[in-house]
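Notebook, p. 212. Picked up where the previous page left off. The plan for this session was modest: take the two constructs that came back from the sequencing core last week, fold each one, and keep the raw output in the notebook itself so nobody has to go hunting through shared drives later. Recording the first one now, exactly as returned: residue sequence, then the C-alpha cell string.
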Amino acid sequence: MIRTFQRPLARNLFVGALAVVGTVASFSLTAAPAQAQSSASYSAVLAKGLDAPVRKVVNGALWNCTGDQCTGRSDGSSPVNTCARVAKEFGQVTKFATPKGELSADKLARCNAAA
C-alpha cells in the first residue's frame, strides 16, 4: 500500500475522494436542521364546520380539515398571514395555534379580516 501512495495520480484521486465524501457528509448534516424547522404544525378551529373532509394546499402547505378542525404545516409566513389564508379558504377562524402558542384576540381579528 505504501507503493500506491508514491504515485501522484493515485494520491490525488484518494485525496479527491476524501474531499467529496467530506463535502457530502457536511452538507447532509447542515441541511437537516433547515428541513426540521420548516415542519412546524399549525392548527385552526373554524367558526363553522365543513360538511365534508377537505384537503387543500394553502400557500404551498397542505391543510387537512375535518368538521371545524384544521391542521397544516408552516408555509414560512408569519402565523397571522397563514391564519388569514386559512380563513380565506375555509372560513372564519375562532382559534389558531402554532408551536409557540395561540394567536391573541387582536391577531385573530386581523386574521379573520381576510375572510
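Okay, moving on. Second construct, recorded in the same format:
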Amino acid sequence: MREVVFSEQAVIPASPYSQGIIATGRTLYVSGQGSFDPATNQFQPGDFRAQAERTFRNVQLILEAAGATWQNVVKVNVYLANALDFAEMNEVYRQVVSAPYPARTTVQAGLVGQMLIEVDCIAVLPDEH
C-alpha cells in the first residue's frame, strides 16, 4: 500500500521519516522540507526569501523523484515562523506554482532553530506512474 520515494538529490532525512510516500498507487505525500542544502544535508540559514526558494526547490526534487511536478500537487501546507513573511512567501510561491493553484493552508508555527519556513504537499501522480 505504501511505496517510499527517495531522491539522492534531495535532503537525506536525519529523523525517522521518508522524503515522500506514494499511497494507493497514485497519491504522493511529501514530508515537510526546509532550507537544507541537499549536497551537504546542512541547514542553510539566510533571509526569508533565500530560505523559501531553497525550501520550494527541495520539495520539487522529491516531486520529480516520484515522476511528478508542481502541476500534480493538489494540497500544500506552508508553515511560517513569522506571519509577517506571508506576502514574500506568496511571491516565491507564484514563481514555483502556477494556476490552477492547489488548495493551500498557511500557518504561523514554532519552527526548529533558525528555520523560517517549512513546506509539505500532497500530489496525485500522472497515470503513467
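Notes on construct two before I forget. The two ends are 15 Å apart (CA to CA).
Flagging for discussion at group meeting.
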